[in-house]
Amino acid sequence: MEGRTILTYNNWVEADVPKFEEENETKGALDVLKWAYDTYKEDIVYACSFGIEGIVLIDLIAQVNDSARIVFLDTGLHFKETYDVIEKVRTRYPSLRIEMKKPALTVEEQKEQYGDELWKHKPGRCCEMRKVIPLQETLSGKTAWISGLRKDQSPTRKYTKYVNRDYRFESLKVCPLVHWTWDEIWEYVRKYDLAYNVLHDQNYPSIGCEMCTLPTTDPNDHRAGRWSGMDKTECGLHRD
Q1: Which helix (H) or strand (E) holds 230?
Q2: What is the DSSP secondary-structure string of 50-69?
Q3: Residues 130-158 pLDDT 10s
Q4: Residues with Cβ within 8 Å of residue 2, at least 6 apart in sequence
Q5: H/E run at residue 113
Q6: What pLDDT score does 234 carry?
Q7: Which residues of this protein are catalytic (predicted)?
Q8: How far apart are CA 134 and CA 169, in angstroms?
Q9: Domains of the chain listed by start with CATH number
Q10: 175 labeled part of a ligand binding site
């Protein structure tokens, strides 16, 4: 690593991103992860929602760095099934460092200060306090973070690349699964018998907080069940 510049938010030049081979078993994901952990070591964190893409990424990460730091943004509003799958992952990969990052206010404290069910009348504010700020705190002082974004998840994500300059958090966002399809994700899960959130079997392709997630069968937008009926498609973590 000596003699070369480490890619960071401040010296970002897209041409300096390594060229990863897309035509292999993991469509470049394993190579991207090996590069990311070799380059950034403890200066990179995986922010995981423990959805189906997260389950695949965790298995790949464990092959590269079995003591990697994985952070779950624990809003206090997630489905019970989400917490259940986290415990199954802990059992399967005991050396991974899985942390539950909570917001400053409990759900009850938020209710007292901002009114009941803030997610209904000001969902953006709720996401800001319970997800965005906690991730900002997590990434403070870190150069890069890993995300499970895929190009075909939704129209807003189709331009995602392996390595992206993240203006929101002033860091680099590494997305190893960008070229994976929904079917390929599931093929991997079944091939290696990975535990996953059972809500995926109930037409929940994308799973967030319980109050803001509905099932959907829209084949063109797996996030159609998130904030359904609202002028909102992202929680704010992936908006520059």
Answers
A1: none
A2: -SHHHHHHHHHHHHH-TT-E
A3: 999 999 999 999 999 999 999 887 777 78
A4: none
A5: helix 107-114
A6: 54
A7: 235 (nucleophile)
A8: 11
A9: 14-212 (3.40.50.620)
A10: no
Rg (C-alpha) for the chain, rounded Å, is 17
The side-by-side arrangement of strands in the sheet containing 69-73 is: 97-101, 69-73, 44-47, 144-146, 171-174, 163-166
In the three-class reduction of DSSP (H, G, I as helix; E, B as strand; rest coil), residue 25 is classed as coil
pLDDT tens figures, 37-80? 999 999 999 999 999 999 999 999 999 999 999 999 999 999 99
- Which sequence positions are flagged as catalytic? 235
Place of tokens 């922010």: 47
pTM assigned to the model: 0.90
Distance CA(188)–CA(91), nearest Å, equals 19
* 129's tokens: 């306090």
How would you class 30 by CB atoms within 10 Å of its CB: exposed for 0-12, middle for 13-18, buried for 19 or more? middle
How many CB atoms neighbour CB 10 within 10 A? 8
Distance CA 135, CA 169 (A): 9
